[in-house]
Amino acid sequence: MIGDKKAIFFDIDGTLMADAFSPMPGSAVEAVRRARENGHLCFIDTGRTWRLVRGIFDGQAEFDGYLLGCGTMILYQGEVLAHSSFSPGLSQRILGALERYRIDAILEGPREVFCRTAEEIYSDYFRKYAEKYRRLNFPDYTGAEGEYDKLFARGDTAADMERFREEFREELEFIDRGKGFYEILPKGCSKAAAIRFIAEHLGIPMENTAAIGDGNNDLPMLACAHRAVAMGNSTPEVLRMADYVTGTVEEDGIRDALQWLGVL
Fold first, then answer.
1. CB neighbours (10 Å) of residue 197?
2. 3-class secondary-structure state, position 202
3. Does the predicted model carry a pTM greater than 0.85?
4. Angstrom distance (rounded) from CA 201 to CA 175
C-alpha cells in the first residue's frame, strides 16, 4: 500500500522531451529526481515500445516503472508485470492487410521495430516521416510476424485506412493521431488501462494519481488519472480536459507541473 504518496505518469515525446531525439532539459531532470527523493513514484506512460525507450534516459533520470506501447507492456522496477500482443494469426493477417490496403506502418515491438525501406513505402508523406528514423537502422518487415505489439500507421489514402479499420474494428484499438496517422493496438490496451493495472498492483488509490501529457494518445491516461496536466504545446483536445496547463518542457513545464501537484 502506497499511502499518501503520489504516482505521476509522464508521456515522453512533447512532454519530457521536446522531440524524439532531444535530451530532457535540466529542469525536468531535477524535478523528477526531487519528486522521487520526496517519496513519490514516477512512471513513464508512453506510446513507445521498450525498443524505443531502452537507454534513452541513461545519465539523465530514473523512473520507478515504464508503461510502454500504449499499455501493451508494463515494467516495474525491472520486472515485466504484463505484456499484451497480437496472436500469431492476427499478426499475420495484419501484415497481409497492410499490403492489401496500401497502409504504411512502423511495427513496434519490445525487442525490435520494423519499417519498410523507402522504396517500399506507398506515400511520399509517410516516406518523409519515416526518414527521421533511418538513423536507428530499423529492419524491414522480414521477421516481423509475431514480434510487434503495435503499429504507427497511415494509409496511402483516407479510404485505404478506412477499409483497414473496418476489417479489424472488432479486434484492434485505433487511436487517431491526426493528419491520417493512427496508433493501432491489441483490443483493450491503452495508457489508461496501464495506469489502472499498476495502481491496483501497487495499492495506489486513484485519487493519488496524476498524468502529464500533450498528445491525443494521452487523452485516456489524462481522463483516468485524478489530476490531468497538459503541456503548453498540447493539442486542443488535451488542453480542454486539463486541470492545469503548464509550459512546454523547454519552458520548465515539468518543474512547474510537479510544483502544482505538490510533490516538490
1. 16
2. helix
3. yes
4. 26
pLDDT in tens, 211-240: 999 999 899 999 999 999 999 999 999 999
Q: Quote the distance between the C-alpha of residue 261 and its chain's center.
A: 22
By C-alpha distance, which of 66, 62, 73, 39 is closest to 208? 39
Cα gap 180→205, rounded to integer Å: 37
Cα gap 13→206, rounded to integer Å: 24
DSSP string for 118-143: TTT-S-HHHHHHHHTTGGG----STT
How does strand 65-68 pair with strand 79-83?
unpaired
CB 114 within 8 A of CB 106: yes
Burial of 247 (0-12, 13-18, 19+ CB in 10 A): middle
Domains of the chain: 7-84+189-260 (3.40.50.1000), 88-186 (3.30.1240.10)
Own/partner contacts of 61-65, CB < 8 Å, gap of 24 or more, are 61/16, 61/24, 61/28, 61/29, 61/32, 61/33, 62/32, 62/33, 62/36, 63/10, 63/32, 64/36, 65/41, 65/198
What value does the mean pLDDT take over residues 65-87? 96
Query: Are 48 and 69 contacting, i.e. CB atoms less than 8 angstroms apart?
Result: yes
Q: What are phi and psi of 180, to 5 degrees?
A: 90, -5
Task: Please check whether residue 13 is in contact with residue 24, taking contact to mean a CB–CB distance below 8 angstroms.
Answer: no
Query: What is the enclosing helix (H) or strand (E) of 10?
Result: strand 7-10
